[in-house]
């Protein structure tokens, strides 16, 4: 079986072709679905890619995200505030936000092989009334 580093190298990392201006304080990894079968597999892979992508970065950006343009999935991490935000339908805005997500929680999520709807079992969901506006290179209703 292919290890994650090899998989990351074989998946295409492209410049942001998201059709909107690129936020300079957001580092975006585009994970194309042609390497993965189905939306659930993408969700499982997204947490692994986000963890590796963030850990291998210089950690100077404010936000890190993994996006997919066909299934309309985004997994966005704000390390300073320890917030993980996700969506499965960009047009509907961000669907869930989790608090107190540090590097250890990201690693746990990466190792868990969970789809988004199972995140509540290991993460703490943020109160919807305290939902934080985040930055992303995707156009969602709750993005700066």
Overview of the molecule:
The protein has helices at residues 4-10, 38-55, 103-112; strands at 26-30, 63-68, 73-78, 83-87, 96-99, 124-125. Mean pLDDT is 81; it is low at 5-20 and 140-144. Helix 2 (38-55) runs antiparallel to helix 3. The protein starts with a helix and ends in a 19-residue tail after the last strand. The chain is globular and about 35 Å long. The protein has a domain at 37-130. It has 3 helices and 6 strands. The chain is an alpha+beta fold and 144 residues long. Strand 2 and strand 3 form a beta hairpin. Strands 1-2-3-4-5-6 form a 6-stranded mixed beta sheet.
Number of strands: 6
The radius of gyration over CA amounts to 14 Å
Beta content comes to 15-25%
Number of separate helices: 3
Determine the N-to-C terminus distance.
40 Å
Descriptive tags:
144 residues; alpha+beta; globular; disordered C terminus
Summarize this structure briefly.
Helix content is 24%, strand content 19%.
Which helices and strands, and how do they pair?
Layout: H1 4-10, E1 26-30, H2 38-55, E2 63-68, E3 73-78, E4 83-87, E5 96-99, H3 103-112, E6 124-125
Parallel strand pairs: 1-2
Antiparallel strand pairs: 2-3, 3-4, 4-5, 5-6
Helix pairs in contact: 2-3
